[in-house]
Amino acid sequence: MTKNKDWFVSWFDTNYYHTLYKHRDYKEAEVFMLNLVSFLKINKDTLLLDLACGKGRHSIYLNTLGYNVIGADLSKNSIKKAKKHENERLSFVEHDMRKPFKTKFDVILNLFTSFGFFEDDAEDIAILQNIKNGLKPNGVAVIDFMNCKNVILNLVAEEIIKIDTITFNIKRYVENGFIVKEINFNADGNTHTYFEKVKNLDLQKINSYLNSVGFKIKHTFGNYQLEDFNEETSDRLILVLE
Length: 242
Ligand SMILES: C[S@@+](CC[C@H](N)C(=O)[O-])C[C@H]1O[C@@H](n2cnc3c(N)ncnc32)[C@H](O)[C@@H]1O
Prior knowledge:
Elements: H1 7-11, H2 15-20, H3 26-40, E1 47-51, H4 57-64, E2 68-73, H5 76-83, E3 90-94, E4 105-110, H6 121-133, E5 135-146, H7 148-153, E6 158-163, E7 166-175, E8 178-187, E9 190-199, H8 203-213, E10 217-221, E11 236-241
Parallel strand pairs: 1-2, 1-4, 2-3, 4-5
Antiparallel strand pairs: 5-11, 6-7, 7-8, 8-9, 10-11
Helix pairs in contact: 3-4, 6-8
């Protein structure tokens, strides 16, 4: 696989992606959601969108708390897995977040670094515009991005991770304004190389995107406990938008 600009279409849809991240932290996702719904005082009768939901770990938990949730993701395979959990107050749809939504929501969540994948800034801005247009009056959006400065400071350049029968050789580096994770492995008789590329966006740059669509930052947090953001030390950059 070449380092194509639409890497996110193929990689997130492979079984290898799900193998590499099979130990993704469900407990951490639950703690974050509990803190968030309590801070935002989200009523049970509201409609939530989990945008770029993956297999739906946040959506499924929010639904167990009594919320009405729609999860949306570009990956057919992730949505197929998530659909097994559907009920009358939880559904999943395939959707490209660069396209507008047909429904309006009280809350739109974009969680765990599901932003900044695109070469062209206009595509990142289109997503913010779609989120803004997709909110009901007084609706609120949350973007949970990484704190790129801290990530770059602590970047592990090379790592070997063995999961099930696959040995993933991982390289991390910064290139052309992106934090790149290069994933090399042998599986099913072939040698594979995939890339994850997330734009090196700081608060100032994201704020410039937000200004261009008339979105305002209401709160800025630095971790899933919702402590204040600190550019030097925080793990996350979590923005509450109105
Ligand atoms: C880092 S994963 C996070 C998944 C999920 N939010 C979680 O925390 O488990 C990023 C997700 O963004 C999705 N994604 C990438 N590009 C997308 C797009 N253009 N529209 C919708 N989803 C997209 C991927 O398929 C993937 O599931």
